[in-house]
Design brief:
Elements (H helix, E strand, L loop, with lengths): L2 H17 L9 H6 L3 H36 L18 H23 L1 H23 L7 H23 L4 H21 L15 E2 L16 E5 L8 E5 H16 L5 H4 L2 H4 L3 H29 L2 H6 L6 H29 L1 H8 L2 H11 L7 H24 L3
Antiparallel strand pairs: 1-2, 2-3
Helix pairs in contact: 1-13, 1-14, 1-15, 3-4, 3-11, 3-13, 4-5, 4-8, 4-11, 5-6, 5-8, 5-14, 5-15, 6-16, 13-14
């Protein structure tokens, strides 16, 4: 194993640890108490990424200046720091940010509604598969045993990932009984509340609306029901489609994985001088904040159109809850920044397929948080299944590591 590969594996481990933990504050007490809006939390993350990248760039530039003086005195000095300036900013970072902001927002919703362990499990599976497609089939990254060996390694890895996702999604029997009783009560009382038949349908149901945190109604706080209600326009249907938030959370986890797998692709096309050291992270932080601002402007515009008033549209935007959410949001951004920087290093040292796929062992970390902190995985059988699936994941990772051609 070469020095670059060793650095890449260490960076991948740090990325997995950070990526597996940055979702913990999303489901914390503060976020649950205020029912934080996903875009609000994503905004805190973006600001933290920009702030931390700025601090690191500042330290990097100081070390670069000192290094220049040291090189003059010591010709055998090999370690290099590349000084970053705004001329090193790459527009390719905007493509990464455009993928990251909506993907991260969807990820927050998934963790809040479906759970940390299952959400990270789903998007990790998606990321591994998409990374395989990008790395092997498009970028032509080589495996010692060829494409067949890569397919075998990914297959083993995905089997383990699917097992983790399955055992992470199990619900306690007590919760199932409560849900069953609640459904029986609803079924018994529904005829009493709907005696008016279809005539009770209000004009509001004829309008297009979405009962979802990320699309609040005019002047009303985000809903915290367990079911989403899609009110279809009259030309389509006058019935309401009920979508459980848990299932929608699973879909958003899949969407986050789909977008997240492509975030680092622009790194391959960016100019070399803009990706040296932590330069790309700084470009990404700047681009992410700009995209977040545009996302809020777009959301304001949509709310204004719904309310037919710019002022009411602004008032319907969710609160940032600075007092409650500043610490959790910044902590999530800090952990994500560490994971992002480590992920960039692992990709540069190991390649897109190897580096980014190894980073997705973060689902093991998130699963441990789900088991011991949030109690998301009930029962000894499910915990044992989760641990066994984790072992399979490590086998897949080892197969990829052994088969990877430098």
């Amino acid at each position: 194993m070469t020095t670059d590969e060793l650095i890449g594996f260490i960076a991948a481990f740090c990325a997995a640890l950070s990526f597996g933990s940055y979702g913990v504050p999303m489901k914390g007490e503060a976020a649950t108490r205020v029912d934080v809006d996903p875009l609000v939390f994503q905004s805190y993350k973006a600001f933290a990424v920009l702030l931390i990248s700025s601090i690191l760039i500042y330290c990097n530039n100081i070390l670069a200046d000192e290094e220049n003086d040291h090189i003059i005195d010591n010709a055998n000095y090999n370690w290099t720091f590349h000084k970053w300036s705004f001329s090193d900013f790459t527009p390719w970072a905007f493509l990464s940010a455009i993928l990251w902001v909506p993907g991260g927002t969807a990820g927050v919703y998934a963790v809040r509604r479906a759970g940390l362990a299952i959400s990270v499990g789903i998007w990790s599976c998606v990321i591994v598969i998409i990374s395989f497609i990008w790395g092997v089939l498009i970028f032509g990254e080589k495996q010692k045993s060829g494409a067949l060996g890569a397919v075998k390694a990914v297959s083993v890895l995905c089997i383990g990932l699917c097992g983790i996702a399955y055992f992470s999604s199990s619900e306690p029997e007590s919760k199932k009984k409560v849900d069953s009783r609640l459904k029986e009560v609803i079924d018994e009382t529904t005829p009493l509340s709907s005696s008016g038949g279809d005539d009770t349908t209000s004009e509001g149901e004829d309008q297009v609306s979405l009962d979802l945190e990320s699309f609040p109604h005019c002047g009303q706080p985000p809903h915290s029901h367990q079911t989403l209600h899609f009110h279809l326009p009259p030309l389509i249907s006058k019935r309401t489609i009920h979508v459980p938030k848990y299932h929608l959370g699973l879909f958003f986890a899949f969407l986050n994985g789909l977008l997240a797998a492509t975030i680092m692709i622009p790194l391959h096309y960016a100019p070399p001088h803009s990706t040296q050291g932590i330069g790309y992270s700084m470009s990404f932080g700047i681009a992410a904040m700009i995209v977040v601002v545009f996302a809020w402007l777009l959301r304001w515009m949509v709310c204004a159109l719904q309310c037919r008033s710019v002022v009411k549209g602004y008032q319907s935007l969710p609160s940032f809850h600075f007092k409650d959410m500043l610490r959790p949001g910044m902590l999530a951004g800090l952990l994500y920044s560490i994971g992002n920087l480590s992920g960039i290093v692992s990709i540069q040292k190991l390649g897109n397929f190897m580096g980014y796929s190894l980073n997705q062992s973060s689902m093991i970390v998130s699963g441990l948080w789900g088991i011991f902190y949030y109690k998301e995985i009930p029962g000894f059988k499910n915990i044992l299944g989760f641990i066994s699936s984790s072992v399979i994941v490590f086998v897949g990772i080892l197969l990829m590591g052994r088969d990877h051609q430098a």
